[in-house]
Specification:
Blueprint (H helix, E strand, L loop, with lengths): L10 E4 L6 E9 L5 E7 L9 H4 L4 E7 L1 H4 L5 E4 L12 E5 L2 E6 L2 E5 L4 H4 L9 H9 L11 H14 L8 E6 L6 H11 L3 E8 L2 E8 L8 H17 L2 E7 L1
Antiparallel strand pairs: 1-2, 1-5, 2-3, 3-4, 6-7, 7-8, 9-11, 9-12, 10-11
Helix pairs in contact: 6-7
Length: 249
């Protein structure tokens, strides 16, 4: 089994269908949930797999994952590296409801749409081994992924349905609502949208969670979910609310 302990400067050789690629561990992102930060080394550069040669390769972009998980996968092989000179963890962007958070050193900057410079920022997320291999095989880069969490969720539903997925049995959305608003009024408006479904709510401060379960005779992959998603987004926009995330069962 690979040693899962990495030191800044170590390399990871990744076996992919398009040929072997290399990552370099540069350190940890320590604000909030800690992530291991890797630099993805430039592809299509002829070199051997020694640390001396790999250390000369430029970094194309950064990604975040967990070394302890990656190195349990036989496609990921640790190569002892060379110590890094002074290195600063880059600025990341993070999906957040119907927009993004730019994680600047000075603090979080919320944005609804990314500008040209922000599109190139690395994404703070736990990238699993399979997805890293896929990205390395297709020369993926951060600017290829511009979907916020709500858009990503809808895309995932569409893709799953095309491959025979039978649908949800329960869906929960979490909203952040202006604290000045009457939580009961908001709850009633959301409940009115879920006709034909069972809906339960819970609230803590300005955070409202709604859970929707289709009736037994409803198609769990039917149009009710598409319509509800659209209506919830419209209501959220009209109330100045923000969808923080979702959970499926």
């Amino acid at each position: 089994m690979n040693d899962s302990r990495l030191r800044a400067g170590d390399f990871v050789e990744v076996e992919s269908p398009a040929g072997n690629r290399f990552l370099r561990f540069v350190g940890k992102y320590k604000k909030g949930v800690p992530y291991d930060v890797f630099g993805v080394l430039r592809a299509n550069v002829v070199c051997d797999s020694t640390a001396q040669s790999l250390s000369k390769l430029p970094i194309e972009y950064f990604c975040t994952s967990a070394a302890s998980i990656l190195l349990k996968d036989s496609r990921f092989k640790k190569i002892k590296g060379l110590p890094l000179s002074q290195f600063s963890i880059p600025t990341f962007r993070e999906r957040y409801g119907t927009g993004w958070h730019i994680l600047e050193p000075s603090g979080v900057v919320p944005v609804h749409q990314l500008d040209n410079q922000q599109r190139d920022l690395p994404i703070l997320e736990l990238v699993p081994a399979e997805q890293i291999v896929t990205r390395l095989s297709t020369n993926w880069k951060p600017s290829d992924d511009l979907l916020d969490s709500t858009e990503w969720f809808i895309k995932a539903i569409s893709q799953a349905r095309r491959t025979g997925w039978k649908g949800f049995t329960k869906v929960s959305w979490e909203f952040q609502i202006d604290e000045r608003r009457d939580i009961e009024v908001v709850t009633k408006r959301l409940s009115d949208l879920a006709k034909g479904c069972e809906i339960t709510t819970s609230a803590e401060g300005s955070i409202l969670t709604i859970t929707v379960t289709p009736q037994a005779d409803a198609l769990s992959d039917g149009p009710w979910l598409d319509d509800l998603e659209k209506d919830l987004s419209n209501v959220a926009d009209s109330m100045g609310a923000r969808i923080l995330g979702h959970e499926i069962e």
